[in-house]
Write a structure and sequence with these properties.
This protein has five helices and ten strands. It is an alpha+beta fold. β5 (about 180-185) and β6 (about 190) form a beta hairpin. α1 (about 5-15) runs antiparallel to α2.
């Protein structure tokens, strides 16, 4: 009510005459000053005293806490870590085994020449060897290779009387597994790889081969030459066969 009465009087004076507007304006200014003094309207800031706005400070989050939280989220659990370790181990082991396998195989002892059952001897063409035809086509003292037990090259021996010997000589060198050829001029088996030598029965007479050549029994079955394993005493040394 206090505010409404002066405002209504002011507009009334403006409508009546322009001369009254000046007096009304003076009254309005006087009324404003009274209102400011009495606290009805607070005084407004002037251009001479600009407002000062204090900037809002950003809250600083400790960096170490953030890093710890991020790193904790990214660390896999123990099960995943073990799985990755196993996958890495497998990826490294398989190629390594493929590369080292042939090298390790060189240290495996050569085939002994033994077998579980007998096998028919075969010639160089893969045909079964007929005993009568073989003896007829090979002279006395001959030693010729055939396919024996386990597929090993095995010498068939023709005795000095022209008969087929009852033993065959495995041609695999006991040093590093080379095939040892028969040297008729020397009357020995001489290895071309490292110079090991064996007598005409396959007994070692010069190293580096540590053992004599393995033996196999030779029999005739249905007219064909049959190899069977030799498990008895080695007649050349009087000892048990190392290959049995």
């Amino acid at each position: 009510m206090i505010l409404a009465a002066p405002i209504c009087d002011l507009f009334t004076l403006i409508m009546v005459s322009p001369q009254a507007f000046s007096a009304a304006a003076s009254s309005l200014l006087h009324w404003k000053g009274s209102c400011v003094q009495t606290g009805i309207f607070p005084s407004l800031p002037t251009a001479s005293a600009p407002l000062k706005i204090k900037p809002i400070e950003r809250r600083q989050v400790p960096e170490t806490v953030c890093q710890a939280a991020i790193s904790a989220d990214r660390v896999p659990d123990m099960g995943k870590r073990q799985l990755m370790n196993l996958l890495l181990l497998g990826a490294v082991s398989l190629p390594s085994a493929a590369l080292l396998g042939p090298y390790i195989y060189c240290f495996v002892p050569p085939s002994s020449g033994g077998g579980g059952t007998g096998i028919i001897a075969k010639d160089a063409l893969g045909n079964d060897i007929v005993a009568a035809a073989w003896v007829k086509s090979h002279p006395s003292g001959d030693r010729t290779l055939s396919e024996g037990l386990k597929g090993d090259p095995t010498y068939l021996v023709i005795e000095n009387d022209g008969t087929l010997a009852t033993y065959g000589i495995n041609a695999v060198c006991t040093h590093l597994g080379c095939v040892v050829p028969w040297n008729p001029a020397e009357g020995k088996f001489i290895c071309p790889c490292h110079g090991s030598q064996y007598n005409n029965q396959g007994k070692v007479v010069r190293g580096p081969a540590p053992l004599s050549l393995a033996l196999a029994h030779v029999d005739v079955q249905d007219g064909k030459v049959l190899f069977t394993p030799w498990v008895e005493t080695d007649f050349r040394s009087g000892e048990d066969p190392w290959w049995a």
